[in-house]
Design goal:
Helix content is 73%, strand content 0%. It has 182 residues and is mainly α. α3 packs antiparallel against α6.
């Protein structure tokens, strides 16, 4: 037994070993976090400083496919094609498109709730939504199934983000740094 340990003090050697272990843990966490950030950068996403802790507390879940919204979008896109021929068709489709656009707007709002990680999807979603709305109100260009494409792209993008966060969690597990982060 050391002379210093009898009096409740740690020896400089033990303290230096403890500091070395902490430094090693910090380096390992930084190395893994940098690796995860590189993965996110490759996929045009971002991984913020506090995302590690949030990822451990509330990991994102894979989103269900939006069948109802897909049906609404397909119905809207199908009706756009033949109804643009006459004046009545243009008026009816414009009103109906506006109504369905409101439904899609509320769906977009719902996509942004429910998770810390959804901040990644907000800007992406609104830019695509605005482009879809503009495209739908341009005569003859609204024959492009923009609403259906928007719903598919939004679901794909959200699923891609969840897979990225799952991959990040797996990287932290493989590196063995989860016990130090949480």
């Amino acid at each position: 037994m050391d002379n210093d340990s009898r009096y409740g003090q740690s020896t400089p050697v033990r303290q230096n070993m403890s500091d070395f272990s902490k430094d090693r843990q910090i380096r390992e966490i930084r190395k893994t976090t940098d690796k995860v950030r590189a993965i996110f950068d490759e996929n045009d996403a971002s991984f913020d400083e506090n995302d590690e802790k949030k990822l451990l507390k509330e990991p994102p879940t894979k989103p269900n496919f939006p069948y109802i919204m897909m049906a609404v979008a397909v119905m809207k896109d199908v009706l756009d094609i033949p109804m643009d021929i006459g004046i009545f068709g243009i008026i009816f489709v414009t009103i109906f498109s506006f109504f369905l656009s409101i439904i899609m707007f509320f769906w977009c709002l719902g996509k942004m709730r429910g998770g810390w990680w959804k901040k990644q999807i907000i800007r992406w979603l609104w830019v695509r939504y605005a482009a879809t709305i503009i495209l739908e109100f341009i005569p003859f260009l609204n024959m492009i199934p923009a609403a259906t494409i928007f719903i598919l792209m939004a679901h794909y993008h959200e699923t891609k983000l969840v897979r990225l966060f799952d991959r990040a969690l797996e990287e932290f597990k493989n590196a063995g740094v989860l016990k130090y982060i949480g």
